[in-house]
């Protein structure tokens, strides 16, 4: 039982939509030391490709029993083709100071006030 006496449905509602159409294209970037340098892949991936990839990792082997939409998606595993991590991983740059949103809003408010009072 869920809150307010509602029962949870065993199957999600799909409203008779088979999820077999592609929508807005979203570029994918896979950054991993297990991807060969210079790899470019033209496979059509879906947002659910991430879930499918996680479900296919060794140890899970599809045991998450995900939705048909996830099962139909391509996964990223073919891109993770190296048996060991590449040794040419660059070092990360030093972190920059955190952006203080409160100070930025004060500056904007002050600038807008001075612009409107000067008119």
Give a structural overview:
The protein has 119 residues and is an all-alpha fold. It has a domain at 19-86. 24% of the residues lie in helices and 0% in strands. The radius of gyration is 24 Å and the shape is extended. The mean pLDDT is 78.
Q: Helical percent range? A: 10-25%
Number of strands: 0
Q: Segments where pLDDT lies below 50 for 5+ residues?
A: none
List SSEs in N-to-C order. Answer: HHH
The portion of residues forming beta strands comes to under 5%
Count of helical segments?
A: 3
How far apart, in Å, are the first and last alpha carbons?
Answer: 62 Å
Q: What is the general shape?
A: extended
Summarize the biggest pleated sheet.
none
Mean pLDDT: 78
Structural class: mainly alpha
- Cα gyration radius (Å): 24 Å
Topology:
Layout (H helix, E strand, L loop, with lengths): L48 H7 L12 H5 L28 H17 L2
Summarize the structure.
By secondary structure, the protein is an all-alpha fold.
């Amino acid at each position: 039982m869920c809150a307010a006496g509602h029962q949870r449905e065993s199957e999600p509602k799909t409203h008779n939509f088979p999820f077999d159409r592609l929508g807005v294209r979203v570029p994918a970037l896979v950054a991993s030391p297990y991807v060969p340098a210079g790899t470019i892949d033209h496979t059509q991936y879906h947002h659910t490709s991430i879930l499918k990839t996680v479900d296919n990792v060794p140890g899970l082997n599809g045991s998450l029993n995900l939705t048909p939409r996830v099962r139909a998606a391509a996964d990223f595993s073919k891109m993770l083709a190296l048996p060991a991590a590449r040794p040419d991983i660059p070092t990360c740059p030093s972190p920059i100071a955190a952006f203080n949103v409160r100070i930025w809003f004060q500056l904007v408010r002050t600038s807008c006030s001075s612009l409107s009072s000067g008119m």
